Amino acid sequence: MSALGLSGKELAASIRTETAARAAELTAAGRRPKLAVVIATADESSAWYVRSIARAAEKAGIACDLVDLGADASAEAIRARLAALSDDPAVHGIILQTPLPEGAALEDLASAIAFEKDVDGANPLSLGRLAAGLPAYAPATAEAVVAILDHHKVELTGRHVAVVGRSTVVGKPAAHLLLDRNATVTVCHSRTADLAAVTSACDVVVAAVGRAGLITAAHVRPGAVVVDVGTNPAEDGGLVGDVDAASVAPVAGALTPVPGGVGPVTTALLLRHTVGAAAL
Ligand code: NAP
């Protein structure tokens, strides 16, 4: 028997439909939502992600400005542009794409994104507020993890969840959101001793590592739910997750696919956040 596929496509489509309707209302009222994506990289997977955001924004009636500062942009130039966009009343959401040039750190630069326009929860203020249980935009990928579990009616209260990865973009905010849902959360990372022993004791495993196929059948207990956040370049030019789906699917109770799982929900939530910011 193979695991149930927890697709994100249906959920993403319903978020996009609702978001497009709100965007149309705002546009009719003279306030067309606008997202600015600041890019300072020539990374191909980043370019792929930016193109998919721009396409989705256009379809939803949201303006999307790609602000390409070049892969050799200085931290000062990036900070200055983020500050200018924060001051621009026509811009409602701002994202800073990674990777960043050497010497530029996301955690440092993202504090130049106005909190109310921080639609991908990159400003440390957003993460701090999230941890304190105060309103803030969560990083869209972390929010997508919980949204996809909710959509497929996976119970979280009292369940033991392993989050593999502790980045400020995915692992840490996902852990906070799961705690808010009364899950018992264990956060794992590269120094975790015997990862398989930890994850195979859990009801839900969230893989947010960036290592293709790291999570195998040995990491998953029979019937567990597995969320694959990983987007790693595949040899055929496509994407593969952090989960070795061929070995995990026969063991897990349910598994999100890559592509078509967390990814589309992430993009849809980013647009929902942008429309929400435009409505303020
Ligand atoms: P990241 O910043 O590189 O963090 C990776 C995390 O994985 C780190 O905490 C690292 O531990 C941990 N790790 C590395 N090797 C490990 C190992 N062997 N065992 C256990 N933990 C290990 O990556 P990220 O930005 O969080 O992204 C994670 C993945 O999600 C990537 O594949 C990325 O492409 C994907 N992603 C997808 C979306 C989407 O929309 N679907 C959005 C964002 C990211 P240390 O802290 O100890 O180094």
Question: How does the SSE layout of this entry go?
Answer:
Layout: E1 4-5, H1 9-28, E2 34-39, H2 44-59, E3 63-68, H3 75-87, E4 93-96, H4 106-109, H5 124-131, H6 140-151, E5 160-164, H7 171-180, E6 184-188, H8 195-199, E7 204-207, E8 225-228, E9 232-233, E10 239-240, H9 245-248, E11 254-255, H10 262-278
Parallel strand pairs: 1-11, 2-3, 2-4, 5-6, 5-7, 7-8, 8-11
Antiparallel strand pairs: 9-10
Helix pairs in contact: 1-10, 2-10, 6-7, 6-10
The structure holds NADP nicotinamide-adenine-dinucleotide phosphate (NAP).
Residues 141, 164-167, 169-171, 188-192, 195, 208-211, 214, 229-232, 242, 262-263, 266 line the site of NADP nicotinamide-adenine-dinucleotide phosphate.
Structure description:
The protein has 280 residues and is α/β, with parallel strands linked by helices. The chain has two domains: 85 residues, 3-Layer(aba) Sandwich (Rossmann fold); 124 residues, 3-Layer(aba) Sandwich (Rossmann fold). The protein has ten helices and eleven strands. Helix 1 packs parallel to helix 10, helix 2 crosses helix 10 and helix 6 packs across helix 7. NADP nicotinamide-adenine-dinucleotide phosphate (NAP) binds next to helix 10. The site of NADP nicotinamide-adenine-dinucleotide phosphate (NAP) has 27 residues, from helix 10.
